[in-house]
Amino acid sequence: MTAALAEPAPDPDRCAALRADLGDAGYTADAVRDGWGPLADEAVGHGLTGPALAALGRRGAGDALAVLARLLFLGVPTEVDAVDAALPRCGVAGLVSLHLATVEEGLVVPSALVRPQDVADEAGAGHWWIASDLDEAALAARTGGVLPTDHVLGVGGASLTLAGLQLPAPAGRVLDVGTGCGIQALRARHYADRVVATDVSSRALRFTELNALLNGVTGIETRHGSLFEPVAGEQFDRVVSNPPFVITPRSAGVPEYEYRDAGYAGDALIEAFVSQVGTVLAPGGAAQLLGNWEYRDGDDGDGLRRVRGWVESSPVPLDAWVIERERLDPLAYAELWVRDGGTVPGTPAYARMVQAWLEDFAARGVTAIGFGYLLLHRPASGSSTLARYERSPQPVGGALGPHLLAAVTAWQRLSALDDAALSAAVLTVAGDVTEARHHMPGAESPSVIELRQGGGLGRTLEVDPALAALVGACDGDLAVGVLIAAIAELLEVDGADLAADLLPRVRELVFTGFLAFA
Question: How does residue 122 score in pLDDT terms, banded at 50, 70 and 90?
Answer without folding.
Answer: low
